[in-house]
């Protein structure tokens, strides 16, 4: 037996779309990109596929959509825009003072606690300066902002865990911004959306949605950051 030399080959955007059309029965398994009205079909499907992938990132279903971002601070400035691709900040930040030259292995990092809007609102000495210890993520602006307190008194750096939007899917020969274990879910969810849009029988739509939900649960198990969930039991002696 001779095994393929390739590993982890991913479907392109248009291959996922074609499979979804075939899965729900709108197109035959013998149809392809040369079939009549393919261009019209694919434009609609790309828009819907893009929405599905964005929804995965927005609801926190994919560890790949999170990353660390180093935010450079300036003395006397407490409001900072995050990159346009940022959806949210997840958790606390870590502060590194101005003397740090390599932020990948800084010594003496200090935590900056993320607080709610009400907590920020109730701070009385908003003019205080020093090393930031609190931050408020202001989501009402575009891009979103982070406000620090006290106001930074030096040009330090803050490492933030951010959730980002996924890359677009409007180029058919590119792959989607998800690991391969999401492909089945995305395909069946798109097949369900296409079935609805084309008024396919209710039972067909229900089956496609049910399979998509099952596959999403399975993908979530692989996708999110893993920690040691093993229970350790020790037997102590009571006096």
Written description of the protein model:
This protein has 239 residues and is α+β, with helices and mostly antiparallel strands. The protein has 2 domains: 13-61 and 178-223; 65-164, no CATH class. Helix content is 31%, strand content 19%. It contains 5 helices and 10 strands. Strands 1, 2, 3, 4, 5, 7, 8 and 10 form an 8-stranded mixed β-sheet that branches. Helix 1 (13-24) packs across helix 2, helix 2 crosses helix 4 (183-197) and helix 4 packs antiparallel against helix 5. The longest helix is centred in the last third of the chain and has 22 residues, at 202-223. The mean pLDDT is 89.
Topology, please?
Elements lengths: L12 H12 L13 H21 L7 E7 L6 E3 L4 E4 L3 E4 L13 E6 L1 H5 L7 E2 L3 E5 L6 E5 L1 E2 L4 E8 L18 H15 L4 H22 L16
Parallel strand pairs: 5-7, 6-9
Antiparallel strand pairs: 1-10, 2-8, 3-10, 4-5, 4-10, 7-8
Helix pairs in contact: 1-2, 1-4, 2-4, 4-5
Radius of gyration from the CA trace? 24 Å
User: Tally of extended strands?
Assistant: 10
* Beta strand %: 15-25%
Q: What is the mean pLDDT?
A: 89
Distance between the termini: 65 Å
Order of secondary-structure elements: HHEEEEEHEEEEEHH
Task: Extract low-pLDDT stretches.
Answer: none
Structural domains: how many: 2
Tertiary shape? elongated
Protein structure class: alpha+beta
């Amino acid at each position: 037996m001779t095994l393929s030399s390739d590993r982890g080959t991913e479907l392109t955007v248009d291959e996922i779309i074609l499979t979804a059309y075939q899965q729900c029965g709108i197109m035959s398994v013998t149809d392809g990109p040369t079939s009549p009205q393919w261009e019209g079909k694919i434009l609609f499907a790309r828009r819907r596929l893009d929405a599905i992938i964005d929804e995965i990132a927005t609801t926190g279903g994919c560890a790949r959509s999170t990353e660390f971002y180093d935010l450079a601070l300036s003395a006397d400035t407490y409001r900072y825009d995050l990159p346009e691709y940022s959806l949210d900040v997840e958790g606390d930040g870590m502060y590194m003072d101005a003397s740090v030259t390599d932020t990948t292995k800084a010594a003496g990092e200090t935590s900056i606690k993320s607080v709610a809007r009400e907590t920020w609102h109730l701070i009385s000495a908003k003019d205080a300066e020093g090393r930031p210890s609190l931050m408020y993520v202001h989501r009402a602006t575009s891009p979103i902002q982070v406000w620090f307190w006290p106001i930074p008194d030096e040009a330090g750096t803050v490492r933030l865990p951010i959730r980002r939007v996924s890359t677009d899917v409007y180029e058919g020969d590119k792959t989607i911004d998800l690991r391969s274990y999401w492909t089945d879910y995305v395909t069946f969810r798109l097949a369900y959306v296409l079935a609805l849009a084309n008024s396919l029988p209710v039972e067909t739509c229900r089956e496609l949605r049910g399979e998509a939900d099952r596959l999403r649960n399975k993908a979530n198990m692989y996708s999110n950051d893993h920690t040691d969930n093993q229970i350790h039991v020790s037997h102590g002696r009571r006096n």
